[in-house]
Design brief:
Elements (H helix, E strand, L loop, with lengths): L36 H5 L12 H6 L13 H14 L3 H14 L1 H10 L1 H8 L3 H7 L1 H4 L6 E4 L6 H6 L8 E5 L16 H14 L6 E7 L5 H4 L14 H19 L4 E4 L4 H11 L5 E3 H21 L8 E4 L3 H18 L3 H5 L2 E5 L2 E2 L25 H8 L3 E4 L9 H10 L4 E4 L11 H7 L5 E4 L6 E3 L2 E3 L2 E2 L6 H11 L6 H13 L3 H5 L10 H18 L12 H8 L10
Parallel strand pairs: 1-3, 2-3, 2-4, 4-5, 6-7, 6-9, 9-10, 10-11, 11-14
Antiparallel strand pairs: 7-8, 12-13
Catalytic activity: oxaloacetate + H(+) = pyruvate + CO2
Cofactor: Mg(2+); Mn(2+)
Pathway: Photosynthesis; C4 acid pathway
């Protein structure tokens, strides 16, 4: 026996190096992997639980590590859905779903795809908002990549710590404006994690190709700074040069590490940064801001569908927004763009049909000097008005859209005024979560005598009014961004062009059938979302090819079929 193998424990050979584990060894524990037995059960990507067959249990040293019963993926799904439905508190369902994702990735996605209408509100809005508020307390295992001010100068090295090399979609937040809940700092990580699980479930992007990132530059939320369980930097937010230098280093490192064709989605940045970052990087990187562009695209799709119920073209209507932030101005811009495209009218003339109200009242010309740059195109000639009700009565819009983040702002008077001069007033209350919605579905229908064409950002149950059941539309970005992202990925697009957003809106509006309109729906049901996503992806990819922005050549003949063939399916694989 060689002297190197002698041990104090009675000469038993130390084959695994456990006695010498404290010595410096030139072995990286993750440089090799043992896909057998115990390790396999703890790898969420390959674990199947009781679904391992007898042959697999023998081949992979699983005998005795599992109870003897065999269970199909369908049976496992049935059990977990049964368990989830026992929870009274939505946050507990969220935690259970996150635990499942950490334990058995394919089962998590199978569950989400097969029960999308029931589970979407759990893994995304509204429950994800509460999860972010309490993220420090419910934090178990890190998900995604955390980049903080401490990493300045080393961001590329941090990206290289992520185990996956071929990343296709990054969702990044700095946690400053999470949903309508404000600054949640580092705890905003729940949003990129949730968004990317939808990219996979609804858009079919492979889980291993998705990377959630939170950039922690501090927080101005005093509650969090004083919370002993807070997981982020305990300092006020960095701003100005310090902030922009970190973001510049991050964007450069992303391109350096993952190449031109990785889609970086900015998520829940505060208004001032969101517009600047999008304007700055859209020329040099493949970037997308869901709050500005995704929201706009899905709302435009809702309006295009609503026109089939209400009549007229986009240009025939007058629009009034409550809220002039990222969502409001983003939607307004896209409506004007689509209007201009179909009428050959200059975009400035189209903008005159669209009015915005912010916290100080109607945005008018006399306020132009004091307005932020993204509000200035919407300052039209009109006397100053302080309240939404005055604006509704004066402008007499046919479409009222709420993106204010403030609940209960579409009052009875406002909705009644809309109903007084419109046979079918179009009312979109888009703020999330549900508690921040400008009005509820029930209020919209009852105050308009059941005549409103209504959609909201968070889900509402169907409402019965005068013996008729109204099904409120949910203007959920999850209709657009997964399919949009898939379209960008399959075409190898190198930039995002506004026409690709218009293509996504038109593709979604085309999915609404007469049968849906009969129920009052202006968005298709979520149940066949993967088919919808594939069609959106095809339209987006087609537009990328048409604009010369696609790098995957030659162009596939049938883009819908190609999109479907690229989509991840979460059924279990058989192992040799």
């Amino acid at each position: 026996m060689s002297s190197g193998m002698e041990t104090a424990g009675g000469g038993v050979e130390d084959a695994y190096g456990e006695d010498r584990a404290t010595e410096e060894q030139l072995i990286t524990p993750w440089a090799f992997s043992v896909a057998s037995g115990y390790t396999l059960l703890r790898d969420p990507r390959h674990n199947k639980g009781l679904a391992f067959s007898e042959a697999e249990r023998d081949a992979h040293y699983l005998r005795g590590l599992l109870p003897p019963a065999l269970a199909s993926q369908e049976l496992q799904e049935k059990k977990i859905m049964h368990n989830l439905r026992q929870y009274e508190v939505p946050l507990h369902r969220y935690i259970a779903m996150m635990d499942l994702q950490e334990r058995n990735e394919r089962l998590f996605y199978k569950l989400l795809i097969d029960n999308v209408e029931e589970l979407l509100p759990v893994v995304y809005t509204p429950t994800v908002g509460e999860a972010c508020q309490k993220y420090g307390s419910i934090y178990r295992r890190p998900q995604g990549l955390y980049i903080s001010l401490k990493d300045k100068g080393k961001i590329l090295e941090v990206l290289k710590n992520w185990p996956e090399r071929s990343i296709q979609v990054i969702v990044v937040t700095d946690g400053e404006r999470i949903l309508g809940l404000g600054d949640l700092g580092c705890q905003g990580m729940g949003i990129p994690v949730g968004k990317l699980s939808l990219y996979t479930a609804l858009g079919g992007v492979r889980p291993s190709a998705c990377l959630p990132i939170t950039i922690d530059v501090g927080t101005n939320n005093e509650t969090l700074l004083n919370d002993e369980f807070y997981i982020g930097l305990r300092q006020k937010r960095a701003t100005g040069q310090e902030y922009h230098e970190l973001l510049e280093e991050f964007m450069t490192a992303v391109k350096q590490n993952y190449g031109e064709k990785v889609l970086t989605q900015f998520e829940d940045f505060a208004n001032h940064n969101a517009f600047d970052l999008l304007a700055k990087y859209s020329k040099s990187h493949l970037v997308f801001n869901d709050d500005i562009q995704g929201t706009a695209s899905v709302v435009l799709a809702g309006l295009l569908a609503a026109l089939k119920v209400v009549g007229g073209t986009l240009a025939d209507h007058t629009y009034l927004f409550l809220g002039a932030g990222e969502a409001g101005t983003g939607i307004a811009d896209l409506i004007a763009l689509e209007m201009s495209k179909h009428t050959d009218t200059p975009i400035d003339d189209c903008r005159k049909k669209i009015w915005l109200v912010d916290s100080k009242g109607l945005i008018v010309e006399s306020r132009k000097e004091s307005l932020q740059h993204f509000k200035q195109p919407w300052a039209h000639a009109h006397e100053p008005l302080k309240t939404l009700l005055e604006a509704v009565e004066s402008i007499k819009p046919t479409v009222l859209i709420g993106t204010s983040g403030v609940g209960r702002t579409f009052t009875k008077e406002v909705v009644e005024a809309m109903a007084s001069f419109n046979a079918k007033p179009v009312i979109f209350a888009l703020s999330n979560p549900t508690s921040h919605s400008e009005c509820t579905a029930e209020q919209a229908y009852s105050w308009s005598q059941g005549r409103a064409v209504f959609a909201s950002g968070s889900p509402f149950d169907p409402v019965e009014h005068d013996g008729k059941v109204h099904v409120p539309g949910q203007s959920n970005n999850a209709y657009i961004f997964p399919g949009f992202g898939l379209g960008v990925v399959i075409s190898g697009a190198i930039r995002v062009h506004d026409d690709m957003l218009l293509a996504a809106s038109e593709a979604l509006a085309e999915q609404v059938t007469d049968e849906h309109f009969a129920k009052g729906l202006i968005f298709p049901p979520f149940t066949n979302i993967r088919t919808i996503s594939a069609r959106i992806a095809a339209k987006v990819a087609a537009k990328a090819y048409e604009l010369g922005l696609a790098s995957r050549l030659p162009r596939p003949d049938d883009l819908v079929k190609y999109a479907q063939s690229c989509m991840y399916t979460p059924t279990y694989r058989n192992y040799r």
